[in-house]
Amino acid sequence: MGYIDFVSLVHKSTKRDYLARVNDSEFPKAKAANLAKKWGYDYWDGDRRINYGGYKYDGRWLQVAQAMAERYGLKAGDRILDVGCGKGFLVYDFTQAVPGVEAQGIDISEYAIENAKEEVKQDLQVGNAANLPFEDNSFDLVVSINTLHNLHCYDLYNALKEIERVGRKHKYVCVESYRNEEEKTNLLYWQVTCEAFNTPEEWEWWFKHTGYSGDHSLIYFEE
Predict the structure, then answer these.
(1) Which of 49, 94, 136, 141 is positioned for an S-S bond with 170, CB 3.0–4.6 A?
(2) Given this model, what pLDDT does residue 12 score?
(3) What confidence category does residue 15 fall into, taking pLDDT thresholds of 50, 70 and 90?
(4) Which three-class secondary structure string do you get for the chain?
(5) pLDDT for residue 182 is more than 80
(6) Domain region containing 204
(7) Tally of domains in the chain
(8) Predicted TM-score (pTM) above 0.90
């Protein structure tokens, strides 16, 4: 298991006003979180003060797919699973980065799957990360980006076990974390769906106690 950062360039491209999210008069933090956790229109395509504010394909994940393809030596015929795939943008970008791969995705949001990128919609399904509907050792690469921290501890445990179970070769997860009180405060202010608030050391504990053997990286809300 190693630490490798594929996601920082995408994460840091977003500017965040933490206090504005907490203090907004129409969508204060608690109201935004209640709406976001329905995983429907408001979460993906509703007001920016709730979450994404319109989650449209812009190709930003292609650089992530290309970096993973190089890191893991992906080739035509390899099978890839994205756990928490959303609208399937990364799934699509894997097919562009490595023509001939078989990329699939699973997400808890029916809205996301219904409004997924048309080119890969047939390869996506609604499901729970804690109970993946795939056989053991089904995929050459299993990835999960910005998803597992949204799970309560009992589901987080199962999800990490499931990723390990269905991945026969490479695995990669990226989750939110904090290293100091400033980053913890920013995370608390900004997030609307996070349930697992863990330091890097605590994430290491989770990986060890679930037997997760893949790579990982952590997202910090530094400024």
Answers:
(1) 141
(2) 66
(3) confident
(4) CCECCCCHHHHCCCCCCHHHHHHCCCCCHHHHHHHHCCCCHHHHHCCCCCCCCCCCCCCCCHHHHHHHHHHHCCCCCCEEEEECCCCCHHHHHHHHHCCCCEEEEEECCHHHHHCCCHHHHHHEEECCCCCCCCCCCCEEEEEEECCHHHCCHHHHHHHHHHHHHHEEEEEEEEEECCCCHHHHHHHHHHCCCCCCCCCHHHHHHHHHHHCCCCEEEEECCCC
(5) yes
(6) 8-219
(7) 1
(8) yes
